[in-house]
Amino acid sequence: MEFALLKKDPHSSARRGRVTTPHGEIQTPVFMPVATHGAMKPLTPAQIVETGSQIILSNTYHLHLQPGEGLVKKAGGLHKFMAWDRPILTDSGGFQVFSLPNKRITEDGVFFKHELTGDEIYLDPASATRIQQDLGADIIMAFDECIPYPCEKTYAEQSTRKTIHWLKECQKAMTSGDQALFGIVQGSVFQNLREMCAKEMCKLDLPGYAIGGVSVGEGLELLKKIVGFTAPHLPENKPRYLMGVGLPEDILESVERGIDMFDCVIPTRYARSATLFTRRGRIRVTNKNYKRDFYPIDRSCSCYTCSHFSRAYLHHLFAANEVLSAVLSAIHNVSFYQTMMTEIREALEIGRFMEYKNLFLAEYGQGEKKK
């Protein structure tokens, strides 16, 4: 994997770049839709491509449980198994494992129960790395401990040092030369821990670096602070990935602070509950005032849904409990995100990112934002 820094914004830390992988190029800043089980609810790979998505994210923990990395490897890897010929990033499963009840964390790994069978499963840095290598993703994530929020600083420091140790074990377990291992900077809300973690990980000269533990309930203001004091300690010549973020305003604030890559389930999860993104904020299309609204979801959007259907039709689909309601809503929401990312990249090309950000947020703040 290679990263090229193409432009630097003159008025902020925002960057424009290009990541080259075995399955194609990724123009950054980029948003990665989440296909947890090797499928993105409720879209086909062809529909995902039509939204403008360049890369998707799948999850190691879930794919390990079902169908198992052995079967995926036998099928020719995750790209072939799910008929996706563009880049894939796999999360190590650390976030999912550490959100489980009754887990047992040791210095070397984690014991937890299978969600369905109740069997005990052990996951450590070496096994998480092996599973991701069998899945065949272009970018794989180190196994880390996702620190809960809030937490005591003593625990955060112990956990952060464990994450650094586990990263070194992941690096030792790497056997594939065509996959890129990213480290995950932890440290909770503590600036000195974030800086320490970033500096230690940079010594390993990894292909890329992520900031983790910022989608566990901190809120936008703390998110801005954490990214603001962590990103400057990451190498300028490597991609920077903010994990699990987020809402449009989260992405814009983080791009301003030098982040290149994002992922989140929000576009598709919100779509399934009838919450749709527009340039004037979010709308809940099941509200009764949309029953006779024959405008598209967003008149400025050219996605398949907005080009063919009205808010009234979407309202009807949800009222009738039709599967198509989730499909059309997801097409729009993912397209909205990808259009925003394209506009961000275009603004960076001409040195006007901050102007774009301020105009976007001013318009976006005028509409309904209720979940």
Strand and helix layout:
Layout: E1 2-8, E2 15-21, E3 24-28, E4 30-33, H1 45-50, E5 56-59, H2 60-65, H3 69-74, H4 78-81, E6 88-91, H5 94-98, E7 104-105, E8 110-113, E9 120-123, H6 125-135, E10 139-141, H7 153-173, E11 180-185, H8 191-202, E12 208-211, H9 220-230, E13 240-242, H10 248-256, E14 261-264, H11 266-272, E15 275-278, E16 281-284, H12 304-308, H13 311-319, H14 323-349, H15 353-364
Parallel strand pairs: 4-14, 5-6, 6-10, 10-11, 11-12, 12-13, 13-14
Antiparallel strand pairs: 1-2, 2-3, 7-8, 8-9, 15-16
Helix pairs in contact: 6-7, 7-8, 9-10, 10-15, 11-14, 13-14, 14-15
Can you characterise this structure?
This protein is an alpha/beta fold and 371 residues long. 41% of the residues lie in helices and 19% in strands. It has 15 helices and 16 strands.
What's the gist of this structure?
With 371 residues, the chain is α/β, with parallel strands linked by helices. The protein has helices at residues 45-50, 60-65, 69-74, 78-81, 94-98, 125-135, 153-173, 191-202, 220-230, 248-256, 266-272, 304-308, 311-319, 323-349, 353-364; strands at 2-8, 15-21, 24-28, 30-33, 56-59, 88-91, 104-105, 110-113, 120-123, 139-141, 180-185, 208-211, 240-242, 261-264, 275-278, 281-284. Strand 7 (104-105) and strand 8 (110-113) form a beta hairpin.
